[in-house]
């Protein structure tokens, strides 16, 4: 048999995939499983975007493109940043990638040397730490406290900075917590980053999914000094229900973007040509479909949030963004006789046929993440099942 590389052996398998894999098996065996694990909108890609893709195919736009994306799409991204975020960039500060995930992966490969530290606020999106490790970097995890809506403070960040610190992840709105940093909090973080000259990797993929009073602020918009240090990560996956098309991007310092483009030239080449034109259509067409999806997410949240909090031993604050609820179920798990939330989540799947993601994969073992990117009918049924499960076990 083959000997695997130390790099491959060091990867922590995705907690998300473990439970969703099991849920799929149960479904295939004919069981009525409700999956609340998915990290993607349940809506179809809007019609006007499909039309743009079909048109691209008919026009023969099916060949290799420039590695970093076609110029029209880069320009559309530049225009989007100006309109939505008040930011001025040029197209040589943009790279289009195979999903936002590839943007972050390639960025880590481009900026990190062995032993370089990257500060990762927890709870974190599962891939950040693994991508840092895959670039021989060291993830330095700092805890965002539940009492502070899972946000890390500028003071905590500063305390984690060492001479080896290269970068800091900020993910607002956040996966898994749905928390949104406000302008003052970001300003304080920006001040620390500028003081210590740390790069900020600002993952803004959930930018369009905000509820109530919450406002999206890109940390890059807080002055020239922080803009120069920030690489913005974004894409159309979550905003335009386009997860399968694989179009994301990174925006920032032209030297970094050029190096990322050179690297991807040997790794992925260009993101799919047709998908690039679909994304171009997504940004240049009528945006009402986005507003409609956002409204649906908001209604679901308003409906199920009080039902979830009514389950004994489930504690969660109402999130301001994304489409997740990150719930402290440690009390419910203990009351039901489980030693760990992981065991509780497994039992929920096996006995109540509800698939949730245990928080251990996000660095927070007391929690589960549920996604409300599914129909209200299924959501309400899932909540009923969880409530009954907890009631019968206690
Ligand atoms: N960043 C965060 C926080 C995410 O949750 C995800 C997807 O789950 C991504 C990035 C990756 O997005 P994409 O599908 O465009 O690669």
TrEMBL record:
Entry EC number(s) = 2.6.1.-
Q: Could you cite one Gene Ontology molecular function of this protein?
A: pyridoxal phosphate binding
Biological process according to GO: amino acid metabolic process
Task: Tell me which cofactor or cofactors this protein depends on.
Answer: pyridoxal 5'-phosphate
Residue ranges occupied by any Aminotransferase class I/classII large domain in the UniProt entry: 32-385
Q: State the superkingdom.
A: Bacteria
Which PROSITE patterns does the UniProt record give? AA_TRANSFER_CLASS_1 (PS00105)
User: Which Pfam families does the record cross-reference, listed alphabetically?
Assistant: Aminotran_1_2
Give the enzyme class: transferase
Instruction: Kindly state which keywords UniProt assigns to this record, in alphabetical order.
Output: Aminotransferase, Pyridoxal phosphate, Transferase
- Family affiliation: Belongs to the class-I pyridoxal-phosphate-dependent aminotransferase family.
Task: Tell me what this protein is called.
Answer: Aminotransferase
Source taxonomy: Bacteria, Bacillati, Bacillota, Bacilli, Bacillales
